[in-house]
Recover the amino acids of this structure.
């Protein structure tokens, strides 16, 4: 186990430096995002993904917590300080838990090669983030290039590709997982939304958007990329209900209401021996 700030990087072996480097870059990338959220005049990115300026202190606090890695949970195995633990699974029986039956994180990762990471919602402990082998072995790039923005099809007032191009970068994937941790530990499981499509995130009401982890990532990526191209808000007279018939990734009209998590994982068993000397 290695500490990166307050974050616990667990069982990552020779990949540890990759995770630490991502955390360091995430820290520097979020500083202008925090500054943007604290601005007296909401930016186009903030208005696109959070809408109501009254939520800006909450948004700023969450990103500040991420930069410092402030612990919001009690100490647990491989998390002696109570902070988030980024756990690399490299073999069966290292991270086993119960969720509708016995689940092995490594087996689940291999069953879906597109899954590079996930956040199992425990009650408690709540601080574990699983990094799958594909997080390191796939062609996902570590850092997004400058001025990397989602693009808008102005003819139908939608983001191209539902905004999924952001998930080609490890830094944004890691931000999503850590945001899940801070949202879940702050407001608990059953009130958190799980809307992924950027167009649907854009349509969430302000009170829902601040409970949706993907909104934080889309916002941070937009500030990071100095982006100013967003769909026109329904409040300005235009909706985002059209289907992009030329884009096979467009899954049809948006649903305004969010998906909601209803499950809680239990009975965690960690099959990795701590040989680091760190409690």
């Amino acid at each position: 186990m290695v500490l990166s700030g307050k974050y616990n990087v667990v069982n990552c072996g020779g990949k540890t430096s990759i995770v630490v480097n991502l955390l360091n870059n995430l820290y520097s990338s979020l500083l202008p995002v925090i500054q943007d959220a604290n601005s007296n005049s909401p930016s186009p990115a903030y208005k696109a993904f959070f809408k109501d300026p009254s939520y800006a202190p909450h948004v700023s606090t969450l990103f500040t917590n991420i930069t410092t890695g402030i612990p919001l949970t009690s100490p647990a195995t491989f998390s002696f300080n109570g902070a988030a633990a980024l756990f690399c699974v490299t073999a069966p029986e290292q991270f086993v838990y119960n969720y509708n039956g016995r689940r092995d994180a490594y087996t689940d990762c291999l069953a879906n090669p597109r899954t590079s990471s996930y956040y199992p919602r425990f009650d408690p402990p709540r601080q574990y983030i699983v990094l799958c082998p594909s997080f390191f072995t796939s062609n996902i790039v570590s850092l997004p290039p400058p001025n990397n923005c989602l693009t808008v099809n102005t003819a139908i007032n939608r983001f191209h590709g539902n905004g999924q191009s952001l998930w080609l970068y490890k830094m944004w994937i890691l931000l999503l997982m850590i945001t899940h941790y801070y949202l879940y530990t702050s407001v608990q499981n059953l009130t958190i939304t799980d809307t992924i499509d950027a167009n649907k995130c854009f349509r969430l009401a302000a009170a829902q958007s601040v409970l949706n982890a993907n909104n934080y990532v889309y916002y941070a990526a937009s500030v990071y990329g100095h982006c100013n191209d967003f769909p026109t808000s329904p409040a300005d007279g235009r909706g985002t209900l059209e289907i992009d018939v030329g884009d096979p990734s467009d899954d049809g009209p948006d649903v305004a209401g969010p998906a909601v998590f209803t499950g809680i994982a239990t009975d965690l068993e960690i099959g990795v021996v701590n040989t680091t000397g760190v409690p």
Notes: Confidence is low (pLDDT under 50) at residues 252-262. Residues 152 and 229 are 7 Å apart (CA to CA).
